[in-house]
Amino acid sequence: MAQPIPIPERMKRPPRPMPEQRPEERIKNFNEVPLGYSVEDAIYEAQRCLQCQKPTCVAGCPAEVNIPGFIQKIVEEDFAGAYLEILKTNSLPAVCGRVCPQEEQCQKTCVYAKKGKPIYIGKLERFVADWARKHNIRENPPQVKREQRVAVVGSGPAGFTCASDLARKGYRVTIFEALHKLGGVLMYGIPEFRLPKEIVDWEINKAKDLGIEMVTNFVVGLTKSVDELAEEFDAIFLANGAGAPKFMQIPGENLNDVCSANEFLTRSNLMKSYLFPEYDTPIKVGEKVAVIGAGNVAMDAARTALRLGAKEVHIVYRRTREEAPARAEEIVHAEEEGVIFDFLTLPVRILGDEKGNVTGMECIRMRLGEPDESGRRRPIPIENSNFIIKVDMVIDALGTMANPLVARSATGVRTNKWGYFEVDEKTCATSREGIFAGGDIIRGSATVISAIGDGKKAARAIDEYLSRGGSLRKSRKPAP
Amino acid sequence: MAKIISKNEIAPDIYSLLVQAPLIAAKARPGQFVILMVREKGERIPLTIADYDRERGTIRMVFEVVGKTTAMLSKLNEGDDLYSLVGPLGIPSEIKHYGTVTVVGGGIGVAPVYPIARELKRAGNRVIAIIGARSKKLLIMEEEMRSVSDELLVTTDDGSYGRKGFVTGPLAELLARGEKIDKIWAIGPAVMMKAVCEVTKPYGIETITSLNATMLDGTGMCGTCRVTVAGETKFACVDGPEFNGHHVDWVEFINRLARYKQQEKMAYELYKSRGDA
């Protein structure tokens, strides 16, 4: 076991970076960019943790992970123990360690953060999960058995977290997924080079140990309605995400090589079309590609385009770098790989030829005005500043909105004007008793970690509801 | 997984596939479709539901071998499983009593027209059906169509059976002689649906077409199937697949169908030359 080192010495240690694939190499492949910690790296980094009596890091983690607890186990070289410690509250450590914006969460509230060298909690979490996968560490099936059945609609981070938490309490849980693979955005949205699909598969399929039944190819709203599920299940958690893509609604948007980031990434990630023709789904990439938007999805689409062979990739964003919603680390990664950033630029028209192919994009320059209701400075077009970018493909990464299929089939479950479910913030309860909702389908496209937070909240409220004898099957009549 | 009950070649390179899918059969209605995958490395392709049997829990699909995936599908046999099958997807046809209805099916488009015609007939409509194919041997489901129509007109492009020419021929005559038609369904290749719409438009008779757009998920999350209808962008998978053909931007639609032509051709050639695991 590694020796604990004296506190003053711990505080002097610089954090340990994680080795990464070099940019010129990695743009030629879809392998993960960060390469992971060695055992030695992990112990070194874990030893920096001060093991605070009142840990401030935990408050920053929506998954409520006992951070000092699992880090101490790393110091003790009990990696399996560290993994099981995390699993007590977070069922997706391999995912979270990779894609959570730790700089905004646990690492932001770490006592070291003020000095600019927080413990790399995410990297340690990732190390622990990868170690567990390599050594096939499994969790014990739940001891308690309960009769009540819970339906979870959607197998993304919100649904999966809720299902796992409830299964650990002994409930009989069934997840319904519309696609042929489980994981939601983890599977179709986030690219292999940030989140390998093999890892998502492992992390999610492992939950079968908990007795969760997982049904793929089942579109709630079409294959069966929410109302029909309410006759078979005692409670329902709606976590179908906000998967409908937004388009700019400018002329030329239905030209052939204009697509949503959802389409582009689903082809590449879920259907593995970067391996075409070994895999059957085709994908096309232009020589010069414009990606519209500056969130994580835009970065993912731009970096995927480079790896598929695009010669020049632009991120076109109407505000500046400061307002860009993507994680700082992702913007840096994209920059290192050669993505060109066109800030303060708004597309107004996509140009094409008679065969429907994209030949260019007309844009207008912007300047920033006063802050708007979102707190970000409002972009204002500069008149007569129109210019044309020569591109042959445009990818819209403008965010997503609610897909109405599920809501349409749920009597008595209220939605707001954007089609998101209205819920009680504390319990994720919808307007119909016994039906709960969380993740992107209550707030629009957000983060994996906020979806996990909702999943946990909902699981707690569902447990409470069922424990006091509530059941959808008893209350046949929907709320008015 | 969905088990194949039977597979029959009903015309050269045209197959009828009967699949065990009780959940889909329970819900399926005319006009809807499914998305299937032949194998784990496969692509997701949409096929219209040509028939369903709620009691037996089966659905039927008719497809033509046009590329790698349909070629692989044609090689599957009774007892084999499809890797995945999801549905029913899309909005069902609006079946009600209209009066006299004309249904037009071209090529394998006759298959999806069949349950629509059957239900229209059941709803009390007088059904005039026009079906066509390139030649006699490619004509499918003539008997089924006859059994649900009050009048059946058949055309072949080469004149080897029925009337010589396209389905638009008899349709134009019906309209010209003043037959009172309340609504028209036309399903087939895009160029055929476009041509039918050009014939019917001057008469102002609503003409429903089923857009066989390229699809990926089929549930509204990607927009690859988007079409312009009456100036607005719609997703064929969730807003359709049926739309009033007089409002469809056919030039754009046909352009978009060709987006992956090159890759599709390459994959099919490679498959024919060396097969696939």
In short:
The complex is a heterodimer of chains A (480) and B (277). Chain A has 480 residues and is of the alpha/beta class. Chain A has helices spanning 7-12, 23-26, 39-47, 67-75, 79-87, 93-99, 121-134, 157-168, 185-188, 197-205, 226-232, 261-270, 296-307, 328-336, 405-408, 440-443, 448-467; strands at residues 149-153, 172-176, 213-215, 235-238, 244-245, 258-260, 288-292, 312-316, 340-342, 345-352, 358-371, 377-381, 387-389, 393-396, 400-401, 435-437.
Average pLDDT of chain B works out at 95
What's the N-to-C terminus distance of chain A? Answer: 62 Å
What class would the helix/strand composition of chain B place it in?
alpha/beta
| Apparent shape of chain A | globular
Question: The CATH topology of the largest domain in chain A, please?
Answer: FAD/NAD(P)-binding domain
Cofactor (chain B): [2Fe-2S] cluster
GO molecular function, one term (chain B): oxidoreductase activity
Domain FAD-binding FR-type (chain B): 1-95
InterPro entries (chain B): Cyt_c3_hydrogenase_gsu (IPR012165), Dihydroorotate_DH_Fe-S-bd (IPR019480), FAD-bd_FR_type (IPR017927), FNR_nucleotide-bd (IPR039261), OxRdtase_FAD/NAD-bd (IPR001433), PyrK_electron_transfer (IPR050353), Riboflavin_synthase-like_b-brl (IPR017938)
Mind explaining what this structure looks like?
- The complex is a heterodimer of chains A (480) and B (277).
- By secondary structure, chain A is of the alpha/beta class.
- Chain A folds into three domains: 7-135, Fumarate Reductase Iron-sulfur Protein, Chain B, domain 2; 149-243 and 402-474, FAD/NAD(P)-binding domain (3-Layer(bba) Sandwich); 246-399, 3-Layer(bba) Sandwich (FAD/NAD(P)-binding domain).
- Chain A has helices at residues 7-12, 23-26, 39-47, 67-75, 79-87, 93-99, 121-134, 157-168, 185-188, 197-205, 226-232, 261-270, 296-307, 328-336, 405-408, 440-443, 448-467; strands at 149-153, 172-176, 213-215, 235-238, 244-245, 258-260, 288-292, 312-316, 340-342, 345-352, 358-371, 377-381, 387-389, 393-396, 400-401, 435-437.
- In chain A, the strands form four sheets. In chain A, strands 3-2-1-4-16 form a five-stranded parallel beta sheet, sandwiched between helices. In chain A, strands 6-14-7-8-9 form a five-stranded parallel beta sheet. In chain A, strands 10, 11, 12 and 13 form a four-stranded antiparallel beta sheet that branches.
- The radius of gyration of chain A is 23 Å and the shape is globular.
- In chain A, 52% of the residues are buried.
- Chain B contains nine helices and 17 strands.
- Chain B is of the alpha/beta class.
- Chain B is globular.
- Chain B folds into three domains: 2-89, Elongation Factor Tu (Ef-tu), domain 3 (Beta Barrel); 101-204, Nucleotide-binding domain of ferredoxin-NADP reductase (FNR) module (Rossmann fold); 211-265, no CATH class.
- In chain B, strand 13, helix 6 (190-200) and strand 14 (207-210) form a beta-alpha-beta unit.
- In chain B, helix 3 (110-122) packs parallel to helix 4 and helix 5 packs parallel to helix 6.
- The mean pLDDT of chain B is 95.
- A seven-stranded mixed beta sheet of chain B has the order 12-11-10-9-13-14-17, sandwiched between helices.
- Helices cover 29% and strands 31% of the residues of chain B.
- The interface between A and B is large, with 40 and 42 residues.
